Amino acid sequence: MNEFMASAMAENNRELTATGLTRREFVRTAAAASIVVGTAGGLMAAEGRTEIRNEMPYRTLGRTGEKVSALGLGGYHIGNPAEEEGIRIVRTAIDRGINFMDNCWDYHDGGSEIRMGKALKDGYRDKVFLMTKIDGRTKAAAAKQIDDSLQRLGTDHIDLMQFHEVLRLEDPDRIFGEGGGMEAMLEAKKAGKVRFIGFTGHKDPLVHLRMLEVAAEHKFHFDSAQMPLNVMDAHFRSFGQKVVPELVKQGIAVLGMKPLGSGAIIKSKTVSAIECLHYALNLPTSVVINGIDKMEYLDQAIEAARTFKPMSEQQVASLLARTAQAAATGKFELFKTTAQFDATARNPNWLG
Prior knowledge:
globular, 17 helices, 352 residues, three-stranded antiparallel beta sheet
């Protein structure tokens, strides 16, 4: 038993009583905390220090060498308010130091990309690292969606293009198969339309691991992988425990999403929004993508970035102990346990 485990066992009777955890559950939580902090430390050593610019942390995006804000602006949510307000949120986020822009071909039927394209006019495009996603699993579908995204965003290139919603075990085989989406992506990269390539998913860490396995079989190295990373994930079908260490090992940028579980985690009344964001920032993430559709949420995200400090094992263990019971069945991570967030399942034609 290491020094932390010994002190944690000695000092946390009160916390065990408050949370209702058994000692065995607490030991498991403490071990998870140790994994989280250890993995984060390994990434920090590999990437060097975080750079602070006007109180915003910037981190290196995997092996790309690009410096991106530790917080990213989610593309789906900017399609929720009126267009003028969505554009104001994008530009204000950029003015306040957020340079990583998230989007997707299918968000609001393309509306989010159109809106962001308008926001990135007047010199704002040059200030950001622009990421969007496509759903196409076939070469034809992927090629069309890449061109659609370029047109909507009003740019001649996307900094990072990702295969969206890799949810099914067959998705990697379709993407990398003959006539698959990767052929279109590689052609787009050769043509200068795409700089870096990644993939996303929110359902199960096994699918992410399968994507990495198939990529290795084809001698392809992804630049990034995006997944839900939050205080609930640590306890249930955990991307943080199963996928992140492999990404760190391979030098693939870790993109965290759903730090607040699309708001559901706050409803659990176990943690605050700032604590959720601090936890995700403490993981070996290059970027934590936060959905923001109100200026007050932008203020909240900026404050989380400004006040973030690396967390100790004790701090992480305490946070995870508070969320363990609520997280046990995945009821606050509906993207894992329901089809509510599976847009490509409802629209299979998007896959091609």
